[in-house]
Amino acid sequence: MFGDRAVIFMVEAVEFLLLGAVLGLVQGLSPGPLVTLVISETLKFGKGEGFKVAVSPLITDSAILVLTLVVLSNLAKYTVIIGMVSILGACYLIFLAMGNLRAKTAVLEAKVMKREALKRAVVTNFLNPHVYVFWISVGAPIILRGLTAHVSASVLFLFGLYVLIVSSEASIAYAVDRSKALIRGDYYSYIVRALGIVLILFALVLLSEGLSILSSV
After folding, report:
1. With helix as H, strand as E and coil as C, how does 152-217 read?
2. Average pLDDT over residues 39-46
3. Highest-pLDDT range among 22-36, 69-83, 102-116, 172-186
4. What is the pLDDT of residue 161?
5. Residue 115: what are its φ and ψ, rounded to 5°?
6. How many CB atoms lie within 10 A of CB 155?
7. What string of DSSP letters covers 110-152?
8. Backbone φ/ψ region at 113: left (φ over 0), alpha (ψ -120 to 50), beta
9. How far is CA 66 from its chain centroid?
10. In this structure, how many other beta carbons lie within 10 angstroms of the beta carbon of residue 6?
């Protein structure tokens, strides 16, 4: 009997670990504001700042997870919160995009701008409604299901999730930093400005989603 329980526990542990790893890989490599910020900060300041952006979910998601668990217990406020966060996120992304679009050259911009990649990434993550949607619709339910089996199942899910999120985004920063040597002159500024346009596109999507959500309340 004890042996059967041990086998079941091991199977569940592997299941939750792999589930977290797969979701982490998808989250880490999917196009979005944070991945765009990884590329932008790496181009302007080097892979060190890109790595800071990569680890930012470790700072933000613990608070967001607690918030989503509270929201799950009071669904009446869910749409309003997500709608407001979406609009705030759109405004912040436009602010970041303006900084990219004003860049003349990557070298000049790196000297003028402060190296605050982690701060910018934390704010971006907090104002990204897709993070909240992920935790409310996917992450938190998996954790609650893991807790019904064993607390270690939820721990393994979180471990797999964040190892893959951080490592995949750090890999992007490393690859971008290595490719900088192939880019000459004004191409830096062109790429940084192009990323600014990408941020604006993400901002428009978030703004549209936020207005749509609030209009349905």
Report:
1. HHHHHHHHHHHHHHHHHHHHHHHHHHHHHHHCCCCHHHHHHHHHHHHHHHHHHHHHHHHHHHHHCC
2. 86
3. 22-36
4. 93
5. -85, 80
6. 17
7. HHHS---HHHHHHHHHHT-HHHHHHIIIIIHHHHHHHHHH-HH
8. beta
9. 17
10. 10
Cα torsion at 99, 105, 106, 109 (round to 10°)? -50
77: part of which helix (H) or strand (E)?
A: none
CA proximity to 53, closest of 193, 175, 173, 181: 173
Which of residues 15 and 72 earns the better pLDDT score? Answer: 15
Give the start-to-end residue ranges of the domains of the chain: 2-215
Least confident residue range of 15-19, 39-43, 103-107, 132-136: 103-107
Crossing angle for the helix pair 151-179 and 33-45, to the nearest 10 degrees: 40
Q: 105 in the Ramachandran plot: left (φ > 0), alpha (ψ -120 to 50) or beta?
A: beta
In terms of residues, how long is the chain?
217
* Residues 6 or more apart whose Cβ sits within 8 Å of residue 80: 214, 217
The pLDDT mean for the chain works out to: 77
